[in-house]
Design brief:
Blueprint: H1 13-29, H2 47-50, H3 60-69, H4 72-75, H5 82-100, H6 105-112
Amino acid sequence: RVEARFPDPLANPYLAFSALLMAGLDGVQNKIHPGDPADKNLYDLPPEEDAKIPTVCASLEEAVAALDADREFLTRGGVFSNDMIDAYIDLKMAEITRLRMTSHPVEFDMYYSL
């Protein structure tokens, strides 16, 4: 049984599901163990046990770095090309740069309302 929850509502569904399928094929072809199931309530774990649970990227910047570091499986069979992945990374890095250069509403609330 396989459950694939949509990774991000802002993601392009065609790219996201293609990448999910390529990751699944990579796991099957290379006999990668998916990890043991977590059959506990993850919200009630003690901190030392919680620290052992793998997590996904916490930011877009981490996700882009992970994509850049591990892209080979995506290019198998010509599903994605390195040029396409590079263009996507450039697009997302431009978004990251723009967000870094923009004041956050919390900053306005904390510093400009005095």
